[in-house]
Amino acid sequence: MNRNLQTPPDERTLRELLSQMNFTAQDLVREPERFSGCDNDEVIAAMLREPSLINRPIVVSDKGVRLCRPPELVLELL
After folding, report:
1. Would you give the DSSP letter of residue 43?
2. Is the previous residue joined to 70 through a cis bond, with omega within 30 degrees of 0?
3. In Å, how far are 2, 15, 60, 73 from 21, measured between CA atoms?
4. Residue 5: its pLDDT value, please?
5. Are 44 and 51 in contact (CB under 8 A)?
6. Residue 71 burial (10 A CB sphere; 0-12, 13-18, 19+)
7. pTM of the predicted model, to two decimals?
8. Do 44 and 14 touch, CB atoms closer than 8 A?
């Protein structure tokens, strides 16, 4: 099993990551169309219940926080 799914972010961490990336919850979910009409709190609650909804990888470095999809985007944070 994916380690990120075994230890998903808690609500506080998820909200901090969203804030640092200047993302809404819909920006981070794998299937945003599934959540059209939902507010940020509803999408966050869904991601907390079902961590596989969270688009990954999210990389945190001294240079910032970024959703690194495609993976080559991580180079900007190294």
Report:
1. H
2. yes
3. 23, 10, 10, 14
4. 62
5. no
6. exposed
7. 0.86
8. yes
Q: Do the beta carbons of residue 58 and residue 34 sit within 8 Å?
A: no
Position 32, amino acid: P
Query: Under 8 Å CB-to-CB from 19, ≥6 apart: which residues?
Result: none
Interval 23-71: pLDDT, tens: 999 999 999 999 999 999 999 999 999 999 999 899 999 999 999 988 8
Q: Do 29 and 55 meet the contact criterion of CB atoms below 8 Å apart?
A: yes
d(CA 10, CA 22): 18
- Taking CA 69 as the corner, what is the angle to CA 64 and CA 71, rounded to the nearest 5 degrees? 85
Beta carbons within 10 angstroms of residue 70's beta carbon: 6
